[in-house]
Amino acid sequence: HRLIYRRSAILGLSPAVSSEQIEMAHHVASDVIGIPLTTVRTEEGADPVYIENTGRACYICKTHLYKTLEAVVREANNNNSSNNNNVTTLYNGTNADDLMDQTRVGLLAAQEAKVLSPLALITKSQVRIAALHVGLPNHNAAASPCLRSRLAMGVQATQQHLNAVEQAETHVRTLLQLPPSMAMRVRMLTNQRARIELEHVTDHHLQLLNTSNIDTLFHKLGFTGGFAGVKTFQTGNVATKKGIHVWKQLAQQQKDTPNHPTNHYHNETEEMASS
Q1: In which band, very low, low, confident or very high, does the pLDDT at 34 lie, cut at 50, 70 and 90?
Q2: Shortest CA distance to 14 belongs to which of 38, 50, 40?
Q3: In angstroms, rounded to a whole number, what is the distance separating the alpha carbons of residues 188 and 39?
Q4: What's the whole-number mean pLDDT along residues 216-232?
Q5: Is the CB of residue 64 less than 8 Å from the CB of residue 44?
Q6: Which of 114-128, 134-148, 253-267 has the lowest mean pLDDT?
Q7: Are strands 194-198 and 184-188 parallel, antiparallel or unpaired?
Q8: Going along 24-90, which residue ranges are E strands?
Q9: Mapping DSSP to helix (H, G, I), strand (E, B) and coil, where does residue 61 land?
Q10: CA 42-183-101 angle, 5° bins
């Protein structure tokens, strides 16, 4: 029998996904790789646990995402029921560096949904090298996780807050003329304060900000607590020990569950590493 592999990209849409990331996904899938891209709406924004943003938001978000994608998979399998060999598998882009980050509780949701991570054995740097080799235009783009990750623990993940962060980052990147490869964040801290984080902070950047009336712009966008200044960018700057505790708690719950997908995931990864 001849096996036919069909590939398709699926992107979950929510207020936490920036318009820039959506545009790039469409461009890379359709124009560069040449595969169809399907977009689906996810509903984590209506989940009270996600909105409260007290440590489990990433887990809740990915749980909603993978449940939505599982529905897409079931529909695809039903449409191809005439092919008894048809199997639809979900993959994500998790890499080895991601697995070392204990603030990424969404990884546990992927394990529960039995989503495979073919890049889990190589680092982010190695992923970028491979992306450059195959000609992807975003191979050196700065990492840009969901907009919810800009919110400090306890700052509600509302559409208003997420929109404020996206608009603020667009303005700051344009004002400072930052290249796509340079990491930058606008964080929403407690009491709706704004903080800018730059991968490289220069006197020129500070001068531009000081003469731009940035405080007024932030206030109009919803950062009513004022401007908390500029800081050197560091991944997970608004994560707390509570977030790491939630990761450990969820991971332990999975280990305590007989035949949990997490155990299957780890065994599968170990087999891949030894082959």
Answers
A1: very high
A2: 40
A3: 28
A4: 95
A5: yes
A6: 253-267
A7: antiparallel
A8: 37-41
A9: helix
A10: 60
- Condensed to tens digits (0 to 9), the pLDDT of residues 51-77 reads 999 989 999 999 999 999 988 888 777
166-205 tens-digit pLDDT: 999 999 999 999 999 999 999 999 999 999 999 999 999 9
Angle, CA 132 vertex, CA 129 and CA 133 arms, to 5° = 85
Residues 6+ apart with CB under 8 A from 258: none
128 Cβ contact partners less than 8 Å away, ≥ 6 residues apart: 139, 140
Q: What average pLDDT does this structure show over 98-119?
A: 89
CA 240 to chain centre: 18
Integer Cα distance of 92 and 49 in angstroms = 24
With contact defined as beta carbons under 8 Å apart, do 30 and 37 qualify?
A: yes
Count CB neighbours of 202 within 10 A.
10
In whole angstroms, what is the distance from residue 63 CA to residue 42 CA? 10
